[in-house]
Write a structure and sequence with these properties.
With about 550 residues, this protein is α/β, with parallel strands linked by helices. It folds into 2 domains: about 200 residues, Aminopeptidase (3-Layer(aba) Sandwich); about 270 residues, Carbon-nitrogen hydrolase (Nitrilase/N-carbamoyl-D-aminoacid amidohydrolase, 4-Layer Sandwich), CATH 3.60.110. Strand 15 and strand 16 form a beta hairpin. Pfam families: CN_hydrolase (PF00795).
Length: about 550
C-alpha cells in the first residue's frame, strides 16, 4: 500500500514556496494542467516569489510538493470588475503584481491528483485567508474555471452556476470554491479562450475579509471586550424615594467596583413607591409613581457619571403632556447623555389596570461599549423588534422584565434565547424577586436573570454566559466579546442574518402607531387600510383581507 493510501503516514507541512522548489512545482503543474499549457516558466515563478513571497504557499508531504496556491496583489476596484486572464500577465509572462494593491488575486490552486479526497485544498485556502487577514487585504479575488461546463452546453453559464450552487451539478473547481466561502460576483467571458472545458467562461469569485480596515481608516474607541452586569432586584417596602435611590446607588457602586461597562435594573424597579400612595386605585397609584420618574432619571444619570457605568434604568411609568402613560426605559450613559426606549407592546394587565399605551419607535443606541438595544419584558416576545435592531447592527440587547409566575418568566427567557440565536447577539434579561403585599397586582415576582449568547463554538456550549439563582437578590456579570459577533455572523456554523431569504420576504417599520385616521391623507389611508398599526379590531382586519 502506498503512502497516500495511509493517512497516518502523512507528514504535512505548509510553507512559502522557495525558488529551489521550482522543479517539483513544474512537474506538478505539468501533470495537472496538461490541457492548459502546463507550468509557468522558471522566470515567471521566481519573479512572483521575489515580488510577493508570502502569497506563494505550498503543501508538502514529507519533502514532496503535493499542492500549491499562487497569488498576486491587485487593485480591488479594477479586478472586481470584468477582466481576462491576460490582464494579469505582462511581457514575457511576468505576472503584474501590484505592491500597492488592496486585494489578493488567486492565480492558481491545485493538489496532486493522487492526494485528492483528503480535503487538503481547504488547508491551502485557509492559509491564504489567514494571510489576507494578517496583511489587511480587502478580499481574495479569483477567476475560477468551470471545467465541467462542457458537459452541460444546454445550460447558459448562469444556469450552470446556479445548478452547481444548488448542488444539482458537481463542478470540481466551482463546488470546492463555493464550499470554502467564496461567492460568485459575476460571469467572466473570454477569460481563458483556450479553456475548452469551461468554454472560455469563468466565474469572478470573492472572499471578503470582514476584518479589513482601509488605510485611511480611523480606529474608534469601541471596546471589543465588554463587561455587562445586572441586578436581580429585591422588591421591598420603602419609606421614601430617597431610600429607594440609596438602594440603587448601592448596586451601581458594586457594578463600578467590578469595572462593569453596563448595569441593568429590572422593569418597574421603583414600584415599591406605589405603596406610599394613599389611594388603592391602581390607575391612581401608577400615576403617583410616574410623578417620580423624571427625578429618578436625573438622579440615576448622575450616578452613571459618578460611578462610570452605563445604566439601563429598567423601566418606569412616564406621563406625557397629553396625560398619556407609557412604560419607559432610559439609557443613562456615563458621559451624561440620556436616551429612552418606550415599551412597544403592552400586556393586557398594563392596558386594563393602568391604561398604559405602547410606544411607536425602536432604537439602537451607540455607547462606548457597543451598540445596544432595549426591549422591555413583553416586547422580547415579538421577534420583529429584535430583528429590526439586529439589522441596525445591535451587539447587545437588554431586557428588563417583571413576571409574577414561573410560566410568565419562561416566556421571557425562551424568547430572549431565541432572539440571541436568530439575531447573533448577546441578550441580558434582568428581573425582580421578592414580595410587595402592600402594592396591588405587584405582590409577587419570579425571576432567574441570565445572559445569553449565540449558539456556536465561540460561546458556552449551552449559550448561557451567566445566570443567577432563582428568586434571590444578587448581581451577575459576564464579559462578552463583540468581535466574536462579527466572526459568527460571517463565518459561524450557520449565518442566521446572512441567510435570510430577502428574495422571498422582508421586514420594515411602517410608521408610528395609532395615528388618528383624520390626520392621514387619502393615499395614507389606502396604504394603511387594515393595518395593525392603526389599531383596527382583529375582526375588521379579517374582513378587509
Amino acid at each position: 500500500m502506498s503512502k497516500i493510501e495511509k493517512p497516518d503516514d502523512f507528514h504535512l507541512t505548509i510553507a512559502e514556496i522557495k525558488k529551489k522548489d521550482y522543479p517539483q512545482l513544474k512537474a506538478l503543474m505539468d501533470r495537472v494542467y496538461v490541457n492548459l499549457g502546463g507550468a509557468w516558466s522558471k522566470n515567471t515563478i521566481h519573479t512572483l516569489i521575489d515580488a510577493f513571497p508570502e502569497g506563494q504557499i505550498a503543501l508538502f508531504d514529507h519533502d514532496e510538493l503535493i499542492g500549491i496556491v499562487l497569488s498576486m496583489r491587485v487593485d480591488y476596484a479594477k479586478f472586481s470588475n470584468p477582466h481576462t486572464y491576460d490582464d494579469l500577465i505582462g511581457h514575457k509572462e511576468i505576472i503584474r503584481d501590484n505592491p500597492e494593491g488592496d486585494a489578493i488575486y488567486g492565480l492558481d490552486a491545485l493538489i496532486d491528483p493522487e492526494y485528492r479526497g483528503y480535503r487538503l485544498g481547504r488547508r491551502l485556502y485557509d492559509a491564504r485567508k489567514e494571510l489576507c487577514r494578517q496583511l489587511n487585504f480587502r478580499a481574495i479575488l479569483a477567476g475560477g474555471r468551470i471545467p465541467n461546463y462542457h458537459n452541460h452546453q444546454d445550460l447558459t453559464p448562469g444556469d450552470y452556476i446556479d445548478a452547481v450552487a444548488s448542488r444539482e451539478i458537481h463542478d470540481s473547481a466551482l463546488s470546492f470554491q463555493l464550499s470554502n466561502g467564496f461567492i460568485v460576483k459575476r460571469i467572466l467571458t473570454a477569460y481563458l479562450p483556450d479553456d475548452a472545458q469551461s468554454k472560455g467562461f469563468a466565474t469572478l469569485l470573492e472572499w471578503a475579509n470582514i476584518y479589513y480596515a482601509p488605510k485611511d481608516y480611523k480606529p474608534n474607541t469601541r471596546k471589543s471586550e465588554v463587561r455587562i452586569g445586572g441586578i436581580q432586584w429585591q422588591m421591598r417596602e420603602v419609606e421614601s424615594p430617597e431610600e429607594l435611590l440609596q438602594q440603587v446607588e448601592f448596586f451601581v457602586d458594586i457594578m463600578a467596583d467590578y469595572n462593569s461597562d453596563f448595569a441593568c435594573l429590572p422593569e418597574f424597579f421603583n414600584a415599591p413607591l406605589m405603596g406610599l400612595c394613599e389611594s388603592t386605585d391602581q390607575n391612581i397609584a401608577i400615576r403617583f409613581l410616574a410623578g417620580y420618574t423624571e427625578w429618578f432619571k436625573n438622579e440615576i444619570s448622575h450616578l452613571a457619571v459618578s460611578y462610570n457605568v452605563n445604566v439601563i434604568t429598567g423601566s418606569m411609568p412616564y406621563l406625557d403632556e397629553e396625560d398619556t402613560l407609557f412604560n419607559v426605559s432610559y439609557l443613562c450613559r456615563r458621559d451624561g447623555t440620556v436616551e429612552e426606549q418606550r415599551k412597544i407592546h403592552i400586556t393586557p394587565h398594563e392596558r386594563s389596570a393602568w391604561v398604559i399605551e405602547g410606544g411607536d419607535e425602536v432604537k439602537v443606541f451607540d455607547t462606548d461599549a457597543g451598540r445596544i438595544g432595549i426591549l422591555v419584558c413583553y416586547d422580547v416576545e415579538f421577534p420583529e423588534l429584535a430583528r429590526l435592531m439586529a439589522l441596525d447592527d445591535m451587539d447587545i440587547l437588554f431586557v428588563p422584565f417583571w413576571t409574577d409566575t414561573q410560566n410568565g418568566y419562561l416566556r421571557v427567557r425562551h424568547c430572549a434565547q431565541a432572539r440571541a440565536i436568530e439575531n447573533e447577539c448577546y441578550v441580558m434579561i434582568c428581573g425582580s424577586v421578592g414580595n410587595l403585599p402592600q402594592v396591588e397586582s405587584l405582590d409577587i415576582q419570579y425571576a432567574q436573570s441570565s445572559i445569553f449568547s449565540p449558539s456556536d463554538f465561540a460561546f458556552p456550549h449551552d449559550a448561557i454566559m451567566a445566570e443567577t439563582t432563582a428568586n434571590t437578590e444578587m448581581v451577575f456579570f459576564s464579559d462578552v466579546n463583540l468581535d466574536k459577533l462579527i466572526h459568527v455572523r460571517n463565518e459561524g456554523s450557520v449565518h442566521n442574518l446572512l441567510d435570510r431569504r430577502d428574495d422571498l420576504y422582508s421586514l420594515k417599520w411602517k410608521r408610528k402607531a395609532k395615528i388618528s385616521a383624520s390626520k392621514l391623507s387619502d393615499d395614507e389611508l389606502r396604504e394603511n387600510s387594515g393595518s395593525v398599526l392603526l389599531g383596527d379590531p382583529l375582526q375588521n382586519r379579517a374582513q378587509k383581507s
